[in-house]
Amino acid sequence: LLSQASGATYEGLQLVVQRGLEQVTYTSLCLPDDIRHRGMSNIPNYHYRDDGMRLWEAIERFVTGIVTFYYGGDEAVSGDTELQAWVMDIFTNGFLGRTSSGVPSSLQTVAELIKFLSMVMFTCSAQHAAVNNGQYDLGAFMPNAPSSMRHPPPREKGRAFLQHFLDTVPEVATTANILVTLILLSSQLQDRRLLGQYPEERFTEVEPRRLIRAFQGRLEEIRDQIEERNYLAELRYNYMNPQETENSISI
C-alpha cells in the first residue's frame, strides 16, 4: 500500500530511512535529554513533553527498582555477558555501529543500565504511541499530509491557485490507499497489551510484583491527569494516555 500511495519508490523510502537514521542520537531517544537539547523545557501547553515526562519518570522509577533488585552493583552489570551481547547487538545492527550516535556499545554501571532500559521501554511504548496513534486523526484530511504530489510545488508567490492545488495533491484512488494504511496503523488490536500489563507473569518474586503494582498505580494516576485535562480542552491530546499506550510496537 505504501508504494502505491506514496510518491517515493521502495528505493526512495530506503534512502529516507537511511538519512533519518543518520540523525538519530542517544540524546534524541532519551526524552529528558531530548527536551533540553531542543530547548523545549519551558514551552507552555506542550502536552507531548508533559505527558511524556510523566511516563518517562514512571518507567525510570520502575526500571530502577527492577534493576537494583537483580543487580547488586556495577560489577554485576559489567560482568553480565548476555546483557553486554544484547547491547552490542543493538549498537551493531540497530545503529550500524555508528559511534557518532552516542548509543552505547556496552554498559558498565547500574546507572547506565537504568537509563538504557528506560530508553528502550519508552521508545517501544510511549514514543511509538505518540508517533503512531494520531496518524489517522491528522492524515484523514488529505491536505494535512499528502502522501505524494503530482506536480512540483510552486516556486513563485501568487502563481498557485485552487485548480493548481487540486491538480497537485493525490487523486482519489491514491488517497484511498493511504487512508487504508493510516486506518490499519492507528487501529487498536483486540489482543493488545497496555503499558505495565504483564499477563505472562514472568516475575514471581515478591519485590518485582510489588514494583509492577506500583508502576500500574502510577500509570492510572497519569491516565486520570490526562483525561481531566482533555475534558476541559478544546483540542484533546490523548496519544500518550497509558490507556492507549501499548507495551511494545505491535502493528
From TrEMBL:
Keywords: Dioxygenase, Isomerase, Metal-binding, Oxidoreductase. SUPFAM superfamilies: Lipoxigenase. Transmembrane segments: none annotated. Pfam families: Lipoxygenase. The keyword Transit peptide does not apply. PROSITE patterns: LIPOXYGENASE_3. This is LOXE3 isomerase. It comes from Sclerurus mexicanus (tawny-throated leaftosser).
